[in-house]
Design goal:
The complex is a heterotetramer of chains A (about 425), B (about 950), C (about 190) and D (about 90).
Chain A (H helix, E strand, L loop, with lengths): L2 H8 L18 E7 L3 H13 L5 E4 L8 H4 L11 H15 L1 H5 L10 E5 L2 H16 L4 E5 H7 L15 E5 L7 H14 L3 E3 L4 E7 L2 E7 L2 E10 L5 H7 L7 E10 L9 E4 L4 E5 L5 E7 L11 H14 L7 E12 L6 E4 L5 E5 L9 H14 L13 H4 L14
Parallel strand pairs in A: 1-2, 1-9, 2-6, 3-11, 9-16
Antiparallel strand pairs in A: 3-5, 4-5, 7-8, 8-9, 10-13, 10-14, 11-12, 12-13, 15-16
Helix pairs in contact in A: 2-8, 2-11, 4-11
Chain B lengths: L12 E10 L2 E7 L3 H7 L6 E2 L6 E2 L12 E4 L2 E5 L10 E4 L25 H4 L8 H13 L15 E12 L3 H12 L4 E4 L8 H4 L4 H12 L4 E4 L2 E3 L7 E6 L2 E12 L3 E3 L12 E3 H11 L6 E6 L2 H12 L3 E7 L8 H8 L4 E3 L3 E6 L6 E6 L2 E4 L2 E5 L2 E3 L2 H5 L3 E5 L4 E5 L5 E3 L9 H18 L32 E3 L4 E2 H9 L5 H8 L12 H12 L3 H4 L11 E2 H5 L12 H6 L2 E6 L2 E7 L5 H14 L2 E4 L4 E6 L3 H8 L12 E7 L5 E11 L2 E6 L4 H15 L4 E4 L4 E7 L3 H7 L16 E6 L2 E6 L8 E7 L3 H12 L5 E2 L2 H10 L34 H10 L3 E7 L13 E4 L2 E12 L4 E9 L8 E5 L5 E7 L14
Parallel strand pairs in B: 1-7, 8-9, 8-13, 9-10, 13-26, 15-22, 16-17, 16-22, 17-18, 32-42
Antiparallel strand pairs in B: 1-2, 3-4, 5-6, 5-7, 11-12, 12-13, 14-23, 19-20, 20-21, 24-25, 27-28, 30-31, 32-38, 33-36, 33-37, 34-35, 35-36, 38-41, 39-40, 40-41, 43-46, 43-48, 44-45, 44-47, 45-46, 47-48
Chain C lengths: L28 E4 L5 E5 L3 H7 L10 E4 L2 E7 L2 E5 L4 H13 L6 E2 L2 H4 E7 L3 H8 L14 E6 L2 E8 L2 E7 L3 H15 L1
Antiparallel strand pairs in C: 1-7, 2-5, 2-6, 3-4, 4-5, 7-10, 8-9, 9-10
The chains are: A alpha/beta (about 425), B alpha+beta (about 950), C alpha+beta (about 190), D alpha+beta (about 90).
Chain lengths: ~425, ~950, ~190, ~90
Amino acid sequence: MPLRLLKYGLSRDYPVSGDIPATPELKPAYDVVIIGGGGHGLSCAHHLAKYHGIKSVAVLEKGYLAGGNTARNTTTIRSNYITPEGIAFYKEGVELFERLSQELDFNVMFSQRGQLTLAHTEATVRSFHMRAEMGRHMGTRTEVVDQKGVEELCPLLNMDYGGPLEILGGLWHADGGTARHDAVAWGYAAQASRRGVEIHQRTEVQGFEVAGDRVRAVKTNRGRVACGQVLIATGGMNYDVALMAGVELPIRCYPLQAMVTQPLKPWLHTLVSSVSLHTYLVQSSRGEVVIGGGSDPYQLYSTRSTLDMKEHLAEGAVHLFPFLQGVQLLRQWAGITDMTPDYSPIMGASPLANLWLDCGWGTWGFKATPVAGKRMAQTIAEGRVPDILKPFALERFETFRLLNEMGATAASH
Amino acid sequence: MNRLPAPFGSRIDRSRRIRFTFEGKPFEGHEGDSIASALAASGQWVLSRSFKYHRPRGILSMTGADANALVQLPFEPNAAAERTPISDGLRVSAQNVNGSLERDRDAIMDMFGRFLPVGFYYRTFMGPRRDSWLKFWEPMIRRKAGLGVVDTKAPARHFDKTHLHCDVLVVGAGPAGLSAAITAAEAGADVVLCEENPEIGGALSYGRYDPAVLSGLSSRLAALPNLKVLTATVCNGWYEDNWLPLIQGNRLHRTRAREVILATGAIEQPAVFRNNDLPGIMLGGAAQRLIRHYGVRPGDSAVVLAAHDDGYRTALDLLDAGLSVVELVDPRPAGEAGPLEAELRDNGIAIRKGATVEAAEGTPGNRHLARVRVGGSWIACDLLAVSIGSAPAWQLPCQAGGKVGYDAATQTMTITLPQGPVHLAGAVAGTDEIKDAIADGQRAATAALSRLGHAVAVERPVTPKTIRPRYVQSIVADPKGRDFVDFDEDLQVKDLQNATKDGYREIELVKRFTTIGMGPSQGRHSALATARIVAEATGRTIGEIGITTARPPVGPETLGVLAGHHEVLERRTALHARHLALNAAMKPVGAWWRPYYYGDASSAEEAVREEILAVREGVGLLDVSTLGKLEIRGPDAGEFLDRLYTMAHASQPVGRVRYCLMLNEMGSVVDDGVAYRMAQDQFYVTATTGAVARVYADMLFWNAEWRLKVDVLNLTGAFSGLNVTGPKARQVLEALECDIDFSRDAFPYLSGRDGTVAGVPVRVMRIGFTGELSYELHCPSSLAPALWDAVMATGKPHGLRPYGLEASRILRLEKGHILIGQDTDAITTPDELGFGWAVSKKKPFFVGKRSIEMRARLGQTRTLVGLQFPAGARNIPGESCLVLRNGAPVGQITSVGYSPSLGHHIALAYVHVDDQAEGSSVTVKCRNGELVEAPVVAHAFFDPTNARQEI
Amino acid sequence: MAAGVATRIYPFMPGGAADGTRLVSGAVALSDLTDKPRFGLKGGGSAAWLAAQGIPLPPVNRIGEHRGMRILRLGNEDILLLAEDAAETLADVKAIWQAAPAPKGYSSWREEGWAWMRLSGPRLAEAMCSLCALDLRPQKFGTDDIAQTRVGHIEAVTFRSPAGFDILFDITASAYFARAVAAVAGHAA
Amino acid sequence: MKLLTCPMNGPRNIDEFQSFGPVRAKLDPNATADRDWSRHLFRAENRKGILVEWWRHVPSNYFFLAERDLVTNEIIRTFDASQLRDRA
């Protein structure tokens, strides 16, 4: 039995950790105001406080802590992208996850069980080769496997279909995994607040005071806050929040839905996703099978669920694993994703000198929680964008330097 | 042994005995029994072990809504024993046990509870090594997690889907739902009444009410042909625009209702006290359901905890069922005695007011209730029926936009819906008495009818007569714990309190940190108590705390019923049977089936080689029917193509065929094909197989904006295409009966002709992908087999053979022809393909023009070139292998193959723009990491001057 | 040249693309009318030309009748003539159209691009409810109504015929469609 | 399933339709600087509020416009493209 459990058992009272302090009074000014108390904002706050000594930081969250896409995503962590810039960035993200529990002294349950993406067409196999070649070149564990390899990695997959939906091969990404999303946010929140960062829940930003090329203050439902630097990290609300500062982002919002079955004894070891079926499955440490897929087909700021998406995902899941027919679904939900034209995020400078962007995370934001926070903190602390983030600049949509990750994002997020 | 005589047991047929097993032991029940009722009738009360502490659990609600009574069936984990009927030979076992239900080795977890406080797993299992979680702790926890076991060998079952439409859907056939459905149907509306139980009536079917009420409603119902009753059907969600899934066994009715009336009733709530989870402690409604529905005596010696009239009714039912009722405990202060209380006292039942059950104790191993403590003293009993109040069934109303509130005056949870096509009726709307529910059902129906345009007088909502505050149990954590708030997740009062101490104060955070309400019952029995505990612990009101968002589905539903049955779409060309007759190896390309090669798999390579040889030296025949075929007609047809494609088409002479290249607005290449101008106002345009659906839609979209005088028709299925290619192609065609002059001068390269070949009207284009003399013959699909037969027969003496996709790919690669989607990606420009020749410099506009101009100024970084590899080269890079420059990736191989005509491997690849010149050499990283050098050569590897196609 | 000697082959005929695919016949029956005469005009001038021939045009998504032919109006300038039992009448119209000068619309080649099948049988209503999400009950969908919708998960045009529902859909999906109907018939029966 | 009322075919399940995105502002390509052109290409209409967007009824290939609330998903009205031209 781990020592800490023994300690719990032997102490008379519940050992209170006080992970999240109650929301304090809002001060008139902070060195850094982070808009958005999700994983990214909290990670940035943690890195500012711990590694850059910046402790006058307020994280403003309009609802409850990490209640947006941090709480709603299906926690895929991977780096098997296509562009070298994307792979380099997400690779650092995976590496940070590998030591995150220790960094936060909070078990984020990073479970690196590998991700298997399935191809049902030759075109998909070709795109897998592209990702594998680039991934290996960049030092990640990514390889194309044939039908036999797929069967070995996931023996329960239904390989019997002939015809258009036959599984032709797969992309095996041994670095892939999942983590407990809430724990990541709570761990960052606990660490950040222990170092003096203030977390303000139910604090909604309603506007900006802009003078010249600088944000002077943010206006909230709890009053005005002057700020040295401002970070926007509000997930599905990024477009809306940036617009309040006069910055128009090339972002469209789409709902992304997912669902989960009742808990089952473990049967699915890896993450499995299918490009053609727009379906992916992963079994959580609670035993629930989380099932997700592609975004909704039209723009919407809503977290409503639809029956059609649920039917579609069930169809995909049963197609891959026919024995799931008798398994009961427990819950479905949705998040609002901020999609960019090239399926890569927008990080770095904005047209305003002290307003920084951590936006455009679409369906792929969770895996970047540690690295985006780390690198945005560095950006804010140093006042300049590090090389690893430069390709993700907003400016790329003016200079046509796209980072096209569409093919590596469709079904797996 | 616990079976009661008729009339108890409305659901069972005593003449039919059914044998099944539970945990390997034989049991017997009657037709109509659920697993739980049959087991209870035989004295088997323990059904499962709990999630965390492995405590014995049994019947709680008899509604199938919680984890207590989930069991394992051979092909279905987590089946609700309270709802699943028994069947002959059914093998039922308990879930989540280490060993057996009776002897669960993990029951020891119950002793170690203090070592596992709420959220403990976030604070430990991290060491000693960085990968300890993955390698050691997680596998251990994963084995302990989960409930049922999925049978990975389960045979396929049949599920189906259908659609249902109605004016009014009423959900719930209790008194309010029945009355609403009858009222709406009597006014002439099309009504569907959906009830999850096998019979109508709701509480009227198991509660202690005058049977005349139900029979009266039933007979009115039966007289209404426009009222369709679906029993044993669960309405499991509400979705936008009144779209509701009604699940009836293995069938999903996707239902569209103009108006919806939710008469979903109320959910009886358990009481919180130490050991409140022991088998033998159940809700009053569960005891009544066992008695009336199944004729099962729920115990021998009962204590009733009643803070509601229903508790008094339950006590009377227990008496009727022959139980000894030791005492009725009513936590409310003594007051005016009603008729139910008088009746109980007349029966000699002790009623204790102002007291409550403080704790319970079990038999050894906590296998059953042994006694309860009331007012400090212990009372022996084997049944505690709990009836202290209920919460409105908020799940469907909330999905439909309802807001949950809390009325502090009456201490009740309330639901309000915005004005619209969804209405509440009965207990879910706050009524308490049967007659109020019936009146409220009528009121809801008239509201719905009025919205449907019926002339009806809309009534005001029913104001319940009783406005005295409901009883609310004050919840204090028991110092020794095991006072469960959530049975599914084994969560106790202190767990919630401790979560708030750690800062998880918002209800959603409490839920996430403790997992409360995340189990199979989805908070049905815990949400209200949780709100109270969190409110108390954080000094806020219950209204401020609220409950967590109600998400669909309402109750569990199988993936099978959601997935239904779905045939996989496949498309076949008109020549499909011809290919099969020729022993073609058919391969899917998108939804299409295409011949890959002709012959046996054992000689595939040889077949492909021979097919290539036939084309290069004789003549071959390829079915190109999957090509997209679009007809653009109208006075503006030329102008339309001018705007859509990069080349000039308005000026294209009739009878000429021109390559066409389509860009998107970003200037990226999205499709190519050829356009044959058949007449001044008519073009026949091909598109790639995979892109035609999108190209067609885009054409329509652009013209919705442009409004040119054109009509676009997708002829992909209507027309079939046969490519006759090879040096002897002309000989074959000329030998056919036809009215087209195929001679070189009369029918030059890149021209088109209409006519008749072998009695088949054709559109012939002299184009080709192979680099050989080629004619593409397109004809109406019903005539394609006839044309195929004629070409095959006539070609036979010339050595004509059909060839498949694989040969076609190599033939085109030998010519360096690109495949859109393979040799291009999302950002490929015409310049990168070296296709400057295909882009008109004169046209003022075409889609993508502005963007390619801009992108040219930004600077081209890569170019698609030909690469060749020496004959006998040891390591040939595969598709997608990287092209490196100074160690950095600058491009990749897009197509590669062995050219039998040239005797070595050739490839198309993106290389750095500075390396594009013929004679440059580039570095390619092979699959195994080895770097090889390859010279850049011209695109057209074979016959670089294109002489062969012009003969 | 001897024109017209070639034999037409439709999907469910011997040698057709769906050869060997079973057409259900029982409580739900699927029959193939793809070889029955029909002719469609589409594009500018179609409606005016047909009207000038004395063919009365119904409103969009309605069916009219003319000398034994059913006139389906699929769009303002998209009209389909079905001549299950009026082959000669249709042949006359086609011959006149072919000889006529423009503007006269353009052939929509529906007789080649669309399969034409008929669903009937005692369990017709149940089968259609499974195949199509629209409310096709008689009180909502009359004998002269046309639905351009999805049937069996593919785009289709459907309308009532005395014997059941007629369905027009992409001819290349004929085998698939027959399988989809057979699956539904298995459930409906 | 959400309903969308096609001006030609009436109310239908939204899975019969294909979204073609918001109606976009027209820009004279020849009077626009590269930078502005690039911005125009990637600009996204995403304001909370009512959006006018193109839809295609797939079975009939009919294109029309809808006004839809991006937050509530309410469809305010649908109309034929000729009305957009008339309005412009």
